[in-house]
Amino acid sequence: MDIDGLEVFEQAEEYGYSWRWDDPRGFQSEILWNREVGYLSLGTRIPPGGWNHNRLDTEQWGYARTIYEARTAVERYVSGAAAKP
Q1: Chain-centre distance for alpha carbon 75
Q2: Is 51 within 8 Å of 27 (Cβ atoms)?
Q3: How many Cβ atoms sit within 10 Å of the Cβ of residue 57?
Q4: DSSP codes joined into one string, 57-84
Q5: What is residue 49's predicted lDDT score, i.e. its pLDDT?
Q6: What is the rounded CA–CA span in Å between residue 67 and residue 27?
Q7: Distance CA 62, CA 59 (A)
Q8: 24 has pLDDT over 90
Q9: What is the extent of the structural domain holding 45?
Q10: What is the pLDDT of residues 29-80, one digit of tens each?
């Protein structure tokens, strides 16, 4: 899927879904969604290093009870990341 000019790869996972993209700030990013608990976590890395994950603030990003809510949160997050130099 394309979000504000960034190619974002969506993949079904055993626990939910993941979305990965090359961040314009010079690193790779991914958001993981766990369908059982509704949490979204953001991972970043500078290749070839490993991923560093943190749960996104539920006050700002909320919980995603469905894949549609998760996609909406991913689109909001990536749009903000794409706007940063």
Answers
A1: 8
A2: no
A3: 10
A4: PHHHH----SHHHHHHHHHHHHHHHHH-
A5: 87
A6: 25
A7: 6
A8: no
A9: 2-83
A10: 999 999 998 889 999 999 888 999 998 887 877 788 899 999 999 999 898 8
Total domains in the fold of the chain: 1
Instruction: Supply the pLDDT for residue 69.
Output: 92
**For residue 80, how many other CB atoms are within 10 A of its CB?**
10
Q: Give the list of residues 6+ apart from residue 29 with CB closer than 8 angstroms, or none.
A: 20, 21, 22, 23, 42, 43, 44, 81
Q: Return the amino acid letter for 61.
A: W
Q: What pLDDT was estimated at residue 13? A: 94
Pairwise CA distance, residues 10 & 57, whole Å: 21
